[in-house]
Every structure is written in C-alpha cells, then in structure tokens.
Amino acid sequence: MPIIRLTREFSFETAHALEGYDGPCREIHGHSYRLFVTVKGRPSDRPGDPKEGMVMDFGLLKRIVNEEVVDRLDHALVLRATPASAPLVGELRARFGNVLAVGYQPTCERMLADFAARIAPRLPEGVALHSLRLYETAASCAEWCADDNP
C-alpha cells in the first residue's frame, strides 16, 4: 500500500506582539491565520476496519488540531512570557479571557514549532505529521517539515 499524504486547512484570528522587536510588529496587532496540516501514512487495508482505505479520519485530524491549536489561539492575545511582561499579562488576564503567555517569541516560525510538538503525539499509530504551513498574511507564510526536524 502506498504512503498517502492528507492535508486539512484551519483558520483562526489571533493577536500578538513581538517584545523587543525593532519593527512595527513590536506593537499589538492581529492576523487572520491559515494553517495547513499535512499528515502521512498508509491507508488501512484491514478487512472489516471501519477506516479501511483511510490514512486517518479527517474528523479526527480536525478534532486534534482544534483542541491543540485553534481553540487555544482563536481570538487570543499571545505575548512572550518575560519578567517585564508578567505585570501586563496579569492585568490583561484580569480583564480579558484569552491572554496567553508563551515561553517563546510568538513569531510565525516559533508558533509552528509549538504546533508540531502539540499535534504529532496525538496522531494515531502509523500516521506521522509531515508538514505544517502557517500563513500570517495572504502573502507570507512559514513552513515546518518533519524531514527537516528529525
């Protein structure tokens, strides 16, 4: 049975700021993110398997990515957790419901690495995360590939 890749698209709205950055993205601003998740594996060839012919159920992929990424980040403000940002994050959390402080600069690139670490362990046996592509704008994206990250 050949190896097949499946891709599903997700979208979410998130604001962030790049603390210490030397350009306009140091200010709080938002993006309409588009995330493409590609997994790979061999379709089931077990007779009687309800998933026969599938690498994995698209519904399961949707559930995993929604739980690990979209539900956390949609309409969230993401800031880097630093000693300088801690008071601000505390004040924002007291007033707003979805403020995330992460242990990295919340760039498109670093977010992808975080997403990969969250999604890969949740995939069914025999299915591997192949790649992630995150569009921050219609014209700008970053890509994570498993082959580059053994």
Describe the structure.
The chain has 150 residues and is an alpha/beta fold. The chain is built from three helices and six strands, in the order E-E-H-E-H-E-H-E-E. It has helices spanning 58-73, 86-95, 108-119, and strands at 4-16, 29-41, 76-80, 99-102, 128-137, 140-145. It has a six-stranded mixed β-sheet, with helices on both faces. The radius of gyration is 18 Å and the shape is elongated.
In short, what is this structure?
With 150 residues, this protein is an alpha/beta fold.
The portion of residues forming beta strands comes to: 25-35%
What structural class should be given to the helix and strand makeup? alpha/beta
What value does the Rg take, in angstroms?
18 Å
Uncertain runs are none
Largest sheet: 6 strands, mixed
Summarize the SSE layout with pairings.
Blueprint: E1 4-16, E2 29-41, H1 58-73, E3 76-80, H2 86-95, E4 99-102, H3 108-119, E5 128-137, E6 140-145
Parallel strand pairs: 1-3, 3-4
Antiparallel strand pairs: 1-2, 2-5, 5-6
Describe this protein with a few key phrases.
single chain, alpha/beta, 3 helices
